[in-house]
């Protein structure tokens, strides 16, 4: 081992492994959330084809105003 390399203790390695597992779980939850939101968006688009076509013809900002409750 070179003189500039740091020794990492077993307890520090365990802490890092726990952190990695925690981050992997969070990533899995976020991935699932994205999949669910994409599916909901697809379902919404399928139900509102006229609104979707109006949004394509117009700018994004005017489409955002259509989604706000009156």
Short description:
This protein is mainly α and 70 residues long. It has 3 helices and no strands.
Question: Would you give an account of this structure?
Answer:
The chain has 70 residues and is mainly alpha-helical. It has one domain. Helix content is 77%, strand content 0%. It contains three helices and no strands. The chain has helices spanning 10-47, 49-57, 60-66. Helix 2 (49-57) packs antiparallel against helix 3 (60-66).
Topology summary:
Elements (H helix, E strand, L loop, with lengths): L9 H38 L1 H9 L2 H7 L4
Helix pairs in contact: 2-3
Quickly list its features.
77% helix; 70 residues; rod-shaped; 3 helices; mainly alpha
Strand content range = under 5%
- Sheet with most strands: none
Mean pLDDT: 79
Give helix % range: over 70%
Give the oligomeric state: single chain
